[in-house]
Design goal:
Blueprint: E1 7-12, H1 16-27, E2 32-38, H2 41-51, E3 55-59, H3 67-77, E4 82-87, H4 90-102, E5 106-110, H5 115-121, H6 123-135, H7 159-167, E6 177-182, H8 186-195, E7 203-208, H9 215-224, E8 229-232, E9 243-246, E10 252-258, E11 261-267, H10 279-289, E12 294-298, H11 307-315, E13 319-323, H12 332-340, E14 345-347, H13 349-363
Parallel strand pairs: 1-2, 1-3, 3-4, 4-5, 6-7, 6-12, 7-9, 8-9, 12-13, 13-14
Antiparallel strand pairs: 10-11
Helix pairs in contact: 1-5, 3-4, 8-13, 10-11, 11-12
């Protein structure tokens, strides 16, 4: 959608205070018009038909109908960009990740205490994500995400099983490292990539823009969908094949050398590109430490974080690629890398895992 006209937003939240605050925040941006609010999904359903909004903000927990059930029905019957408003709790993290799996574009964290001050502090992020959502591609899941990692007992012909069987004997090395970065839309894009990795694939290091309280739930979710072991990184731990590492608790993740092996380094330094963790921090460390033994990829995401780091990786001899615009929810980060000439290849999401593995084989 073009933002030559104001983006029309419908706010769905059972809290009158939150509805008022979000209305004030969003109406304060000249590119956004709040066309209505709704206290529950049933009222929202009628207002969607009547007001035809471009974007919904949707609370996770509401009366009369669960927010996830409403989102599922909405994506099935009337797909529309949705920004979730979620709480910074373990339960909120789990539910938000489920919402992203159902097709929500992005989310904004809502503080559990002093909501008024907390939401105002997030005003810039809220308006940016709503405007981004208006331009995003709504991804309607064609199937529910799998609930278990691929295995030889999975149905014949499944993509994960075929990748595992075809590649299982080929990855017995600690010499390759795959580095992935993502933001908006990335929680599901990373699932798609990792679930196609065999159990003995090269080690993977990941930075996904998430609040610190979400990292454990995100790692657990990816681990359930992957044959490789996905975990929160611990400071100083060795990076091993068949494992994927994400930063713990909103810390930057770096890769450092230790003789002939690599280790995770958690960094509590300031945000980079307004993010913590930041993809650029990870990618620059990979360029410096791993060099030509690395393979880097930027998946869907808003902004330009990771573009300069991917360029540094390419200049250090690493193979680099990005997700294409057609399969990205938001082509901000991949597009920025493309403009810099950081990526050797541009691929649709469904081909990225296969290409990462083939590059690892070719360079082994």
């Amino acid at each position: 959608m073009s933002l030559q006209r104001a983006c029309k937003v419908l706010i769905v939240d059972d809290s009158a205070v939150v509805r008022q605050l979000l209305t004030e925040i969003l109406d304060g941006d000249p590119d956004i018009e709040v066309v209505g609010t709704a206290a529950d999904p049933y009222l929202a359903r009628e207002k969607i038909k009547r007001l035809n909004p471009d974007v919904l903000t949707l609370d996770v927990e509401m009366p009369r109908m669960d927010g996830l059930m409403f989102l599922h029905n909405l994506m099935r019957l009337h797909p529309i960009p949705v920004v979730m408003i979620s709480s910074l709790t373990q339960r909120g993290a789990d539910t938000t990740l489920q919402a992203l799996a159902l097709g929500a574009v992005d989310f904004v964290s809502k503080p559990t205490l002093d909501v008024q001050r907390g939401l105002r502090a997030f005003a810039e992020e809220i308006t940016a994500k709503v405007k981004m959502a208006a331009r995003a591609r709504v991804r309607v899941p064609d199937r529910p995400p799998v609930s278990a990692p691929p295995s030889v007992n999975a149905p014949a012909g499944s993509a994960g099983t075929m990748a595992a069987l075809a590649s299982r004997a080929r990855f017995r090395t600690t010499d390759r490292l795959i580095a992935l970065g993502a933001s908006a839309g990335g929680t599901e894009a990373l699932r798609v990539v990792l679930e196609a990795m065999p159990a003995d694939a090269p080690a993977v290091v990941i930075t996904q823009h998430l609040p610190g309280s979400f990292s454990a739930a995100f790692a657990e979710r990816l681990d359930r969908h992957s044959a490789i072991a996905v975990r929160e990184a611990s400071d100083g731990e060795a990076i091993l094949p068949g494992h994927a590492y994400i930063p713990k608790g909103g810390l930057h993740l770096r890769v450092v050398g230790d003789g002939a092996r690599w280790r995770c380094k958690l960094d509590d330094g300031p945000p980079v590109n307004r993010h913590k963790p930041a993809v650029d921090v990870l990618f620059h460390s990979v360029a410096q430490t791993v060099g030509a033994n690395a393979i880097g990829a930027i998946l869907t995401g808003m902004g330009d974080d990771g573009a300069r780091g991917l360029l540094a990786m390419r200049q250090a001899g690493a193979r680099t690629l990005i997700q294409d615009e057609a399969s990205s929810v938001v082509w901000g980060m991949p597009g920025a890398a493309h403009k810099l000439g950081a990526a050797e290849e541009v691929l649709p999401l469904q081909r990225i895992a296969e290409r990462l593995l083939s590059l690892a084989r070719a360079s082994a």
